């Protein structure tokens, strides 16, 4: 159930949809949701009808990546790239419609990238790195992503803001956006 709520974290998910997707009794789902809310793993959105991940779920996720085998596997490569380029280098992974920064290596240049910290979640396609991931999605998936997260793509500073309406093929999103940012 927690994974299902996490997969719908951007828009939230209602009790009935959880019941339908899990095939469980409504009363069992409601009791489980109450327990998850009490533990801070899930919270109700402002409208009171939909659920999203709670603060404790975020804290657990961040703690997991401090000693992650994924980070251990790529850390030396990331350090080398940061050293050779002088740029800050990020390792991110897909979590539903989002990417989570799981590691950050500072480069030697005086220009820093303060906006992205380890544990930050961003909608896929709203950062330079996640735009590359979005470019591998099928056209219908790209359009659906833009529809589900339209406000995120319209924010000032969003890497893909300028190309939100022009991404028509798998290869074009990254090229179109990199030319405009």
Automatic annotation (TrEMBL):
Keywords: Transcription, Transcription regulation. The keyword Transcription regulation applies. It comes from the Bacteria. The keyword Transcription applies. Coiled coil: none annotated. Gene3D superfamilies: 3.30.450.40, Winged helix-like DNA-binding domain superfamily/Winged helix DNA-binding domain. Residues 1-55 form the HTH iclR-type domain. InterPro entries: GAF-like_dom_sf (IPR029016), HTH_MetabolicPath_Reg (IPR050707), Tscrpt_reg_IclR_N (IPR005471), WH-like_DNA-bd_sf (IPR036388), WH_DNA-bd_sf (IPR036390). This is Helix-turn-helix domain-containing protein. The lineage of its organism: Bacteria, Pseudomonadati, Pseudomonadota, Betaproteobacteria, Burkholderiales.
């Amino acid at each position: 159930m927690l994974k299902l709520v996490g997969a719908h974290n951007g828009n939230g998910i209602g009790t009935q949809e959880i019941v339908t997707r899990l095939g469980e009794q409504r009363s069992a789902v409601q009791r489980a949701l109450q327990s998850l809310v009490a533990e801070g793993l899930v919270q109700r959105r402002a409208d009171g009808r939909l659920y999203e991940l709670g603060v404790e779920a975020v804290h657990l996720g961040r703690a997991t990546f401090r000693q992650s085998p994924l980070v251990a596997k790529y850390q030396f490569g990331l350090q080398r790239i940061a050293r050779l380029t002088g740029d800050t280098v990020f390792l991110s992974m897909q979590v539903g419609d989002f990417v989570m920064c799981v590691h950050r290596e500072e480069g030697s240049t005086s220009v820093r990238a303060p906006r992205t910290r380890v544990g930050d979640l961003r909608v896929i396609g709203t950062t330079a790195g996640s735009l590359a991931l979005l470019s591998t999605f099928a056209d219908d998936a790209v359009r659906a992503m833009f529809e589900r997260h339209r406000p995120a793509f319209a924010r000032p500073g969003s890497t893909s803001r300028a190309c939100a309406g022009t991404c028509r093929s798998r290869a074009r999103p990254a090229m179109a956006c990199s030319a405009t940012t």
